[in-house]
Amino acid sequence: MYKISEFADVTGLSKETLRYYAEVKLLEPAYIDPVNKYRYYDDGSYFLAILLVKLRGFGFTIQEMISVMEDESFANLEKILQQKRNTILLQIDNLTAKLAELDEFLVSGRENEE
Questions:
Q1: What is the pTM assigned to this prediction?
Q2: Check: CATH 3.30.360.10 for 1-59?
């Protein structure tokens, strides 16, 4: 069992993030001491925390992460990841189009100066 500060160190999540994740039922401690209210995490919690770190890195919202965690079998995880991948590709296309439009605007501005 890991105290919250130890768990924060091994997962890269801050203590505040761990408390928030517990509050929204995303990642609850394996045990809370009834006397001193210390939070403890186990090895199973570690796997889930690393998954959450990855999902957050992929741009998942808290609600999207909750949806993944509620499906304890993770049967839909590949489908959800594929949907996120498609969303990211669309964002890339949109940003590429904006970049091209911006470049075109800059070139037309220079031409008008001449």
A1: 0.75
A2: no
